[in-house]
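Note to self: user wants both folds in one dump. Writing first protein now.
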Amino acid sequence: MNIFFSLSLFPYLIFLYFLTRTPETPRIALIGFYMLLLFVGITIPAGLYAQNAYGTSLANVDWLHGGAEFFLSLSNILVVWGFKQAAASAKSSSPEPITDPGSITSES
């Protein structure tokens, strides 16, 4: 199972590469996506510590598991917040919809 976890890092790094190069990506959301790497970076040593110190998996050591999951939650919040701000900004800058069909002129 660890091989799949390790291999999943490469597609995610490619995703981050292209997302970073896309100027339309909201900055806060981008920070959230990078925060997911921080979550992984914290979870791995926390899992090793749980195994060595307590003889069990990270999921069974609540204080360690909760601390690691905090970074996952923070990542998710930042991604949602970033895209929510971008959607609100796009909505406020979009032109008003035409409500009167008679006001449309055709160029025929």
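First done. Writing the second protein, which came from a different request thread.
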Amino acid sequence: MGYSRWVNRPHAYSLNPVVSVSDAFTISKGNPYLIPELTDDLFLEYALQFKGNFVSSRFFFNNTTDAISNLVFINDTGSFEFQKQNLGTIRQFGFQLTGTVRVGIVTLNPTFRLYRLNTYSNDLASLYMIKDRQKAGFESGLSTIISLKKEFSVSFLVQYATPKPTIQESTFCDAFYMLTIEKTFKHKIKLGMVSAIPMKIICLSRIRNYCLRFSLQLQRNSQCTFISGMVQTQLPVQHRI
């Protein structure tokens, strides 16, 4: 069982009141009067190890007050104005499951998070007809590592989540995939290639009471990144607790 509290202070861009023009119909600006978000996080966790495998389950609850989010409205010029504001409270509770399972040369690391999210609009948000929201959703992921001969390894990552709302907006993206191939030299240096698998990415952003925006990106060629010079030091283990 654990409890934590932290403060999320607005960054410089959010505090900057200078107007930024994105296009002919959209402007955005910060707010120098923002106050920090305050988040309380409470969880109860149970972990189990068996035959070299690991499973952890967690019940969680977190509450964010004075949540900083975009307030979107149509201004006097008929443009959409995005303005940073403290819009209310976001409360989330649910269940999370993570683990590590080894099957021969394959290591699986699944994760699953099921939650219920409630938002509560403050007086400012209510002036713009932003109502309280209740939404259930989940986040999931799976990473797979295959250890091959001659210190080669192949890993694959996939992540997917349902649309997640804030006080006024909801965002959603397609599943994310990544493939990595690595070679280890003398147990210390790794040389590898990370590639996003060619795919079509659809992103959606919905702003309550106003509009629905779509963005579509077709990625024909994978983007590759070469990583070298990663040194890992392994120390002998004398005691295990």
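Dump finished. Worth passing along: The domain at 2-231 is CATH 2.40.170.20 (Maltoporin; Chain A).
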